[in-house]
Specification:
Largest sheet: 7 strands, parallel
Distance between the termini: 38 Å
Low-confidence stretches: none
CATH class of one domain: Alpha Beta
CATH architecture of one domain: 3-Layer(aba) Sandwich
Radius of gyration: 19 Å
Strand content: 15-25%
Strand order of the largest sheet: 3-2-1-4-5-6-10
Structural class: alpha/beta
Shape: globular
Mean pLDDT: 96
CATH superfamily of one domain: NAD(P)-binding Rossmann-like Domain
Number of helices: 11
Length: 296
């Protein structure tokens, strides 16, 4: 039995499709707040546990009889602290893993462990602490250590389409790895369907090249057939926009600290090797994902 959290999320949804296609006979259980967000065809093929996987009773029901779990902490903009948002949310699950003898857990986490900025990287620092919590529970654990997502560009779809502007906080020439969420889902599927691994480890998932914002807008311009320029946002502007949107102070600070740390090399601590490199290039992602989104 494989249990998936966040099965309607970006990574979780793609992972669910992969598992249903690659392992149609594998028993699957999903934990979801709103089962109506699952298609009828999916609901017919999986067991559904309704509720938040951060709730102790839900975790107890969800992980009973599970061999493997896909673990994601959903963002909580109203959390009183980052510790509460990550480790606090995960604690009931860790207890349920032990109580029900869960063997393997694959979690979505971040690059940064071992870098000089890891202890002041906001959301990433909290995510790494969550990894330690799960790793200490006795389960075999693989933390998918991810850089920034190519798919985050979609948050700027309107400004790319209407103004020809891609805005972010990174230094224009700063190169860093990016990864497509579909490649994260594919790596998670491989691990969840492989019963042979043991112990605790980190699995970096890097795209095939390091890119700067200037590189990204050059590729966007070529693929979209229209000029796109980069606009660097001050971290203060990012914080003000999040606050105006109702995001709590802890999450705002966590995001700002993470983005500052990324610009200081948070994602640069892992070498690109055949084992750490995923296949989707940014150009391919733009052709297959960004173009339809901009045209929609």
């Amino acid at each position: 039995m494989i249990v998936l959290t966040t099965p309607t999320g970006d990574i979780g949804g793609q992972l669910l499709e992969l598992l249903l296609s690659r392992a149609p006979d594998e028993p699957l259980r999903v934990v979801v707040r709103d089962p109506a967000k699952l298609s009828g065809a999916v609901r017919d093929r999986v067991e559904v546990v309704t509720g938040s996987h951060g709730d102790a009773d839900v975790a107890d029901r969800a992980f009973a009889g599970a061999d493997a779990v896909f673990w994601v902490v959903p963002p909580d903009p109203s959390a009183p602290s980052l510790e509460a948002a990550y480790s606090g949310f995960t604690t009931p699950a860790v207890k349920a893993f032990a109580a029900h003898g869960v063997r393997r857990v694959v979690g979505v986490s971040a690059l940064g462990r071992g870098t000089t900025v890891a202890d002041r990287a906001g959301l990433v620092t909290a995510s790494l602490a969550m990894d330690d919590l799960i790793a200490g529970s006795g389960v075999a654990y693989r933390a998918l250590a991810n850089p920034g997502f190519m798919d985050n560009v979609l948050r700027r779809t309107a400004s790319i389409r209407d103004e020809g502007v891609f805005a972010d906080t990174a230094s224009p020439a700063r190169r860093a790895p990016l990864v497509a969420t579909r490649d994260i889902a594919a790596r998670a599927a491989e691990l969840l369907l492989d019963p042979s691994w043991e112990g605790v480890g980190s699995v970096p998932v890097l795209g095939p090249e390091d890119l700067s914002p200037e590189d990204m807008v050059r590729t966007m311009s070529e693929v979209l057939g229209r000029p796109v320029r980069y606009e660097r946002l001050p971290l203060e502007t990012l914080a003000a926009g999040m606050t105006a949107g109702g995001v709590g102070d802890a999450f705002v600070r966590g995001m700002v600290d993470m983005m500052r740390a990324k610009d200081e090399g948070l994602d640069a601590g892992v070498p690109r090797t055949p084992e750490t490199t995923s296949p989707t290039t940014f150009r391919q992602w733009c052709q297959e994902v960004l173009v339809p989104a901009v045209g929609a």
